[in-house]
Design a protein that fits this description.
This protein has 280 residues and is of the alpha/beta class. The protein is built from 14 helices and 8 strands. The radius of gyration is 21 Å and the shape is elongated.
Length: 280
C-alpha cells in the first residue's frame, strides 16, 4: 500500500468505545503499528474512558469532534444507537478524507448509506473480542473493492486474520466468528469441568483445556487440514478418544453447536431493524 494510504488510516476514531470498541483500541496499540495518541475514543459516559485516557488515548464525549480529528471512523455503538449517531455526524463527513467502518451487528451498508446521504466509503467489519490479544477473526465486506477495503484489511490484519466476504454473509460471520468466541469458551469450560471430575484442580483443568483447544486450532490453521483428518490421527480402534467422541455425539454435541449458530444468526439478522440488544 502506498505511503499516503498508510498515513491516511493512522488517525482513527472509535465511535462508541464499549467492550468491542475498547478491544479494538487495545489490540491496535498492542500490535505496535498504532500509537494510543492516534486513536480517539468516544463514549456518552466519558467517565468509563478515564483508564483509557491514562493509557494515552484521546477521549471525548463529542462524536463530532472525533470525526473532525480523524480519517477512519469505526462505528461501534449499539444497533439501536446507530441512527442517532449517523444523524449527529452526517454534516461532518467528508467523502474526500473519511471512511466509515461499521462493526455494528445487523446494519447493512445500504441503510447506513441512506442515512448519511453522501459518498463516504463504507465498509462492514465483524471482528471478535480476541482482537484485544491480536488473535481476532475479522470478516470484511464493502460495496466494491477499493482503498477503503484495503485500509480496513490493514487495520484488522494488525490484530488477527481477515477474510473479505460478500455482505450477505455478514450475518453468518457474526454468528460463527463473533458469537463463536462464546461458544468455544463454553466448550473449554465444559472440558475443564470434566477435568475436575476426573481429578484435576480447577485451575489445572482450565489450563489443560485452554491450551489443548489452542493447540487444536493451531493444527488446523498451520496444516490447513480438515478437522476429521486431525481427529483420525488421534483416534485408534477401541481407544479412549473414539469412545469419548462417540459419547459426545450421542449426547448431541455437534447438533447443539450447529443449532446454536443457527439461532445466533437468526437473532443477529434482526438486531438493527428491531432495535434489540446490541450484544453479539
Amino acid at each position: 500500500m502506498e505511503t499516503s494510504k498508510k498515513n491516511r488510516f493512522k488517525a482513527i476514531c472509535i465511535l462508541g468505545a464499549g467492550n468491542i470498541g475498547m478491544a479494538i483500541a487495545n489490540g491496535l496499540v498492542a500490535s505496535g503499528k498504532f500509537l494510543a495518541k492516534d486513536l480517539t475514543l468516544t463514549r456518552r459516559r466519558i467517565q468509563h474512558l478515564e483508564e483509557a485516557g491514562k493509557k494515552g488515548f484521546s477521549i471525548t464525549d463529542d462524536n463530532r469532534k472525533g470525526v473532525r480529528d480523524s480519517s477512519v471512523l469505526i462505528l461501534a455503538v449499539e444497533p439501536q444507537q446507530l441512527n442517532s449517531l449517523l444523524d449527529e455526524i452526517r454534516s461532518d463527513l467528508d467523502p474526500a478524507r473519511h471512511i466509515l467502518i461499521s462493526v455494528i451487528t445487523g446494519a447493512p451498508i445500504r441503510q447506513i448509506r441512506a442515512r448519511i446521504g453522501n459518498d463516504v466509503p463504507i465498509v462492514r467489519a465483524m471482528p471478535n473480542t480476541a482482537i484485544a490479544n491480536r488473535e481476532a477473526m475479522t470478516c470484511i465486506s464493502a460495496e466494491a473493492p477499493g482503498d477503503a477495503t484495503e485500509i480496513a484489511e490493514s487495520i484488522f490484519e494488525a490484530v488477527g486474520q481477515t477474510l473479505v466476504i460478500e455482505e450477505e454473509q455478514m450475518t453468518a460471520a457474526t454468528a460463527l466468528g463473533a458469537c463463536g468466541i462464546a461458544f468455544f469458551l463454553r466448550a473449554i469450560r465444559a472440558a475443564s469441568q470434566g477435568g475436575i471430575e476426573i481429578g484435576f484442580q480447577s485451575h489445572d483443568a482450565l489450563l489443560i483445556a485452554a491450551q489443548t483447544a489452542k493447540g487444536a486450532a493451531s493444527l488446523l490453521l498451520s496444516r490447513q487440514n480438515h478437522p476429521e483428518f486431525e481427529i483420525d490421527r488421534v483416534t485408534t480402534p477401541r481407544g479412549c478418544t473414539i469412545s469419548g467422541l462417540n459419547q459426545m455425539e450421542h449426547e448431541g454435541f455437534s447438533s447443539a453447536m450447529i443449532k446454536g449458530i443457527l439461532t445466533s444468526a437468526d437473532i443477529a439478522s434482526k438486531l438493527y431493524n428491531t432495535g434489540g440488544d446490541a450484544g453479539t
